[in-house]
Structures are given as C-alpha cells and as structure tokens.
Batch of 2 targets.
Target 1
Amino acid sequence: MAKKLKVRKIGNSLGVILPKEVLNDLRVEEGDDLDYLTNKKELRLFANNPNFAEEMKVFKSLSRRYRNALGELAK
C-alpha cells in the first residue's frame, strides 16, 4: 500500500523521516545502513546485511554439494 512521506530540509540536505512501522518492517535501527535502487519514477530501500556476501558463499558451496537433495525438496 502506497503512503505519502514529506520531503524536508535536514541541515543542508533534503530528506524524509521513515515511520516506525517502516523501520520495524526493515528491521533497522538508528545508525544502520540502508541500500537503495532508484529509477526515474521510484525508490526502493533495502536493509543492508553485512553478512550477505559470506552467507551466499556458504549457500553456493552447500547447494553444489547437496544439489540432488535440494532438487527433491523443491518438488
């Protein structure tokens, strides 16, 4: 569901204040990093997971080793 946020002046920059519900959904707190993607019509925010690269490395290693078992579980 789309909701509106107001762009405000924060120091010498412009910004938006994220509602508590959004912060809870993203599981972020003050000081955490957010990643974003943007195009001409939208902005997408993602909670930054510093362990993501390491977790993907482990997953790729295990997925090769247990390829057949994962294929059976996917059915």
Target 2
Amino acid sequence: MQDKHKVEQSNDISSVSLKAESCRLPQLKKAIVLVGIIFLFLLITVLRRPDAITYPQFHAEDGVFWYTEAYNATNPITPFLIPKQKYFQTISRVGASASMFFDISHAPLIFNSLAIIIQILPAVFFLSKRFERIVPKTWQRFLIGTLYLVLPATHETHVNLTNAMWRLALLMFLIIVATPPKKTWQKFSDGFLLSIAGLSGPFVFFAFPVALVHAYLKSFRERISNLIIICVAFLIQAYSFLFIISDSMRLKVSLGAGLLNFFKILGLSVFINGLIGLDNKKYILDLTLWKNGKLPVIVSLIGIGLLMYVFWKAKNELRLFIIFAFLIFGASLITPQVSSTKPQWEAMASGGGVNRYYFFPVVAWVFSLTWLFFKGESKIMKSIAGLLLICLLLIGIPADFIWKPYKDYKFQEQVTKFKQLNPGESLTFKIYPNWEMPLVRK
C-alpha cells in the first residue's frame, strides 16, 4: 500500500511539474513575441530618421537650454526647478541630467535614445491586456500601435527630446483610460510615468479634467491614486504658469484669427496632411478651389462631420481622446508661435508653422477613421473611412515615412575643438536648426 501511495504521489508531482512547464511555454512565447514587436517598433522609429543614431546632434532647445543648463549647474537639482515658457519640462531635464554621466560627445545620442523610448512607449503600452476592454483583439491593437508610429505629418515630434513631451502626453492619456492595474509594479510604473508626463509641458491642464470625467464614468475608487498624482502635477504647473517668472520667448506678432484661416489650418494641416503627408500639400495649395477658400471649407466640414459621427457612436475612451486632442489643438491656436513677421494664423493657413501643434488632432483623425472602418455600423461611413485610409496607406505613409535628415553641423568635430580649449574658455556650437549653443570649458 505504501509503495502504491508513493507511486501515486510521484505521479501527482509529475503532473504538477508538467502543468507548470506547459504554463511557462506560452509565457515564454509571449515574451519572445513582445521583444520582437518592441524591436520592430524601434526599427520603424529609427528608419524614419536614421541620422538620429548615425550622426546624432542636439536639436534646438535640447542643447541651448537643457544640456547647457545641466552642464553649468553647480547643483544637479537646480535645473529641475526652472520652468521654461511658464511651465516645467521635466522629461527634457531628465535627459540632460542623464547625459552628464557621459562625455559630451555622447550627449546627443543619450537625448535621442530617450526620445525614441518615449516615442514607442504608447504603442507598446497599448498592446497590453489593460486595453482588451477597449480594443479586444491583440492584432488590432498592434495595427493601431504601428499606425501611430508611421503617421505622416508628425515630423517635428519625431525623435527629439524637446518635443518628446507631446508623445509623453499621449502615454499619459492612455494610462488614464486603461484598465486599472492589479500588480504593484504596474501601479508604481503608472504613477511614475504620470508624474513625469504631468510635469512635462502644459498637457496636464487638459489631462486632469479628462481624468476626472473618466473616473466619474468608471470608478473614482479604482483611479484615486492616479487622480491624486495628476492633480498634484496640475497644481504645480498651474502655480508655475501663474506665479513663477520665467524666461519667455513669445513672439510679439498679432494672431490674425479668422474663420477662413481656421478652415485652412484645420483642413490642410489636420485632415489633408494627416492622410497624404506633408510633401504632397503643395498640390493642394496650387488648386484654384483652395485659393478661393471653397475647398478648405468643404474639407473641414467633411472632416468635422466624420469626427462628430465617431464621437456619437464610439466608446467613451475614444470620445475623451477626441476631446483631449482638440482641446490641445485649440490651445495651440490661441497662443501659437509660428512667424516673427506674419500674423500667426496667416502663416499657419499658408501651410507653414510648427508641425507639433497638429500632432494630437492628426492622431485623433486617423484613429477615428480606423475605428469607423472596423466598428462603424453604416456601410456608407465604413466605405468613406476605407477610401480615406487607402489614401493614408498608399500616399501619406510612403510620402512621409522617411524624414529629411537634419543638416549635419559636424557636432563631433566641434566637440574635438571644445576639448582642446583651456578651462574657462568658451566655444559656440552650431546646432540644428542653425541655433547657437555657447559652452564654457570646465
């Protein structure tokens, strides 16, 4: 009997071991697939502008503000307490502080590497099971994440740390609407990323009310910790905006607001460029219908109509994203910094201006079309969305996939000259786009 009992016990142990091993195999496969997807996302991001890795150099504020102020600081905490343009930009400060542990020759690569990681984070995060409630099928979440990484008309937010805060704001929104985490490390990760995102740029001003509405629709109790973090970031940024005197480079040029200019900005920079890319906008601007103002109105009304239909039919999360995106777009139109000579809206309406202002509405526009194609009930609406997405896939993405490389200012040669200086001597670096970065040798 004892021998029989030992045999049965041995069989039970073997059975448990086999079950444990069978559980490990799917987990291993999932891990391998995830690593492969992350590598693919990294590859896509780098291929769109390889010079960010092959010959990295500072981009504007990355060098003039973030690196210079970190380099000159006697206390590494001091730069984090200095707002720029009336709000804190913590992620840029983090990159600059991290670069202090490396030689100056490697600093631009540190900046760009951090920007790349931030850029792919929303796509990677969207793959997680925490979005199964919103988009149940994994392949659809992968498709949306890939689409986000190859979007046309997004070059100014592509792989530079100064504008990485726009990508980080998208991640902040995703954390807000995701299913609340159960694991401790996920809760800590959410809190950490929300803190950094909330203290990087003005986006928390729009994220906080969205988070309140979403918590009201779902559950305050499950989201209270995130709400507290976002609220604190909101209050800090609001205090900075209202009470801290910071250096400002606001252009003293009239706004030039007008209804036709609005339709031209919205129609071209969001609805058209978001589908056919920036390189093809010249064909639109040359059309008589565009010049006489009829086409901008028609395009804008069609785009607004499609967005309103999606807003009416979609889940609350997509509705909130459309609100979030166009609140940011609206704020950008109120205080744009585009031209030092022309009225701001006039410069934007002519196809010029800062591309980052259109990042969120372009994402909302393309994602709304994607939802309409997959989830729309009306065959007519699905067909319209399908035709527009074909334009995106066949025209916009190929035209805008590879961005024009930054002009090479021979950063490494400038570093060599800098290292030959005696302590106390200075060198003015030339950095993209034709900015100057004076630095004193220590």
